[in-house]
Design a protein that fits this description.
164 residues; 56% strand; globular; mainly beta; 15 strands; seven-stranded antiparallel sheet
């Protein structure tokens, strides 16, 4: 799923970092994902890309999370374990960057130019209002993870099996 634009389309991705499953961005020209964590942008070679999903972006700010917001990851490691991380995006320097929204600190965190940028007003990814709200489960039966939401199938493909 296209998550924004930074000299090229960027895609919604997620990867593990310090025990957290963290939403971030995939940049096709580098073949890598980038996640925000601990004040820095972290480059990842092992990641997942969100694809084939019926969703939309809505404006929000602070810790207001719409009832149908999509959970894109979970905290772990040094953070409070198991709290949801949502998929957010905002404009920085004229570029639309996707990252994680974390309600504990009322901010959206974006991986950009080697840093983790904090923004209080952002867009959050939500499922259409006519779908049943539920968090994406983090279980897998194969190397390609498929999640079922109402009548929509969400497929998360590991980098090695994804073509853009």
């Amino acid at each position: 799923m296209i998550g924004g634009f930074e000299n090229e389309h960027i895609y919604v991705a997620r990867a593990y970092h310090n025990g957290s499953l963290c939403p971030g961005k995939y940049v096709k020209s580098t073949g890598k994902a980038y996640v925000p964590w601990g004040g820095n942008e972290h480059c990842k070679e092992d990641f997942e890309i969100l694809c084939g999903f019926n969703a939309k972006w809505v404006k929000t700010s602070s810790n207001y999370i719409p009832h149908n917001a999509i959970v894109g990851g979970r905290t772990g490691g040094y953070e409070i374990r198991g709290e949801p991380l949502y998929i957010g995006r905002a404009i920085i320097d004229g570029r639309l960057i996707c990252g994680k929204a974390y309600t504990r600190y009322n901010l959206c965190y974006l991986p950009y130019k080697g840093k983790e940028i904090e923004v209080p007003s952002y867009e959050i990814l939500v499922s259409p209002d006519d779908e049943i709200q539920q968090a994406l489960p983090f279980t897998t039966n194969s190397s390609i993870r498929t999640y079922i939401r109402s009548n929509t199938t969400v497929t998360i493909a590991p980098r090695s099996q994804y073509r853009i």
